Amino acid sequence: MPKQLNLFIIVCFIALQSTAQKINTDSLWQLVTTTKNDSFKFNLFQKIDDATENSLDETYAYCKKLVEHGEKNKDKSFIVFGYRLYASFYNRIGNYIKGQEALVKATTIAEDMPDNGNYLSLIYNSKGTRENDFNKKIEFLKKGISLCKDEFFKRVLFYNVSTGYLANNQVDSALFYAQKSQEIVIKYHDTSSSYNPNIFGRIYLKLKQPEIAFAYFKRALQIAETTKLLSNYTVAYNGLIAYFTEFHNMDSVLVYQKKKFAFNTPDAYASKVAASNFVYNYYLQNGNKDSVIKYLLFNKQGNDSLNSLKKIQDLKQAQINEELRQKDFAFAQQASTESRNRNIQLAITAIAILSVIILFLLLSRSILVSHKVVEFLSVLVLLVVFEFINLLIHPFLESITHHSPVLMLLGLVAIASLIIPLHHRLEHWTTKKLVEKNKAIRLANAKKTIKEIESSN
């Protein structure tokens, strides 16, 4: 019964969101932070990814929001998805090194989760889509499929395997995995993505069945116009461009290339510049001088703008790097403080145990103890006490000496010069007490022995 309820919740949510023109990210956030259903939460993470894709600023804001919420509430699922979203963000602005670093962080945290199949499959999906080597791409994606427990997300993995096979001209395998993805889409009544119609359109175009291919491409466009998602528009336009290019219908190719100029996010600018190349050449061949000049100017200005945009992105990247550096520094400080506190507790425990042992040996009225044993134990106490004081005042020493090794060493020597005389006094006192105790025990034993001898006579 609980599984059926979970399925019903997910289906209803997807149906609701697929009919809305704009997904309300605030509503998604409220749902994802309150739900106790792990599968539902995992699917909500995907919806947040979709909902923020039309705005780089919103994507970045949710990256931070996810990670901070996860750290505050000790929920690794939020942290993993936050870094996975960071990886997507960095790749969109062209910083692939940072994208890879974010993905590595997500992997490290996901591997430490007890029930990590879905989140590792998410990461393997990201690795697979970014991999250029065909064999590695398929290996990553199939690994993701084997780990994934969420059936709804498997549609994405099957789709990406299909695109990998299609790019490698293995059409039968591409069709097989596209059908597996479509089975899940139909089961969940998902009408929020243009990707599946697009892959079927491309497959049937390869199979020389243009009527079926065109129907799928038109379906992809309908979904894009319903959802208003940039990724859906990109997929739909590129599918129709591929279709009309195949049949040398350049007038229709022109229509869909020009539609790309409606894209208004910074990472879509390169797509518009590439489209302007086609439009410029089209008008040049057809003798439309006014349009040639217009798109030639756009191409030039576009390239100049891309260079300016790159500078803006570099500046924003520097700001992001500094934020991450500060966050890493804060994590390191917190880890250092926790480690120091733990070591202080261990030192206190060791001092207490050794002190109890020494007191027991001193106060015991039946055990003869060599003063060498007590000396050894007292030296151990001295060392542990010194380490305890060092841990306790280390931050203070660092602040007043400004991390100077020489000054810190002098400070520790000064502390040792105070402790050692105290230790000598304590050692002298314990030795005296030990001798007195041993004498008393021996005297008591001697008296006992004399009494036994007298009584036997």
As a percent range, the share of helical residues equals: over 70%
Please tell me how large the radius of gyration is: 36 Å
Q: Which structural class fits the helix and strand makeup?
A: mainly alpha
The average pLDDT is 76
Low-confidence stretches are 1-22
Total of DSSP H or I helical runs spanning 4+ residues: 18
Reading the helices and strands in chain order gives: HHHHHHHHHHHHHHHHHH
Number of strands: 0
State which percent range the strand residues make up. Answer: under 5%
Largest sheet: none
- Report the end-to-end length measured between terminal Cα atoms: 92 Å
Query: Which of globular, elongated, flat, extended, rod-shaped describes the shape?
Result: elongated
Outline the structure in words.
By secondary structure, this protein is mainly α. Helices cover 85% and strands 0% of the residues. It is built from 18 helices and no strands. Residues 1-22 have low confidence and may be disordered.
Summary, kept brief:
The chain is mainly α and 457 residues long. It has 18 helices and no strands. The longest helix has 75 residues, at 289-363.
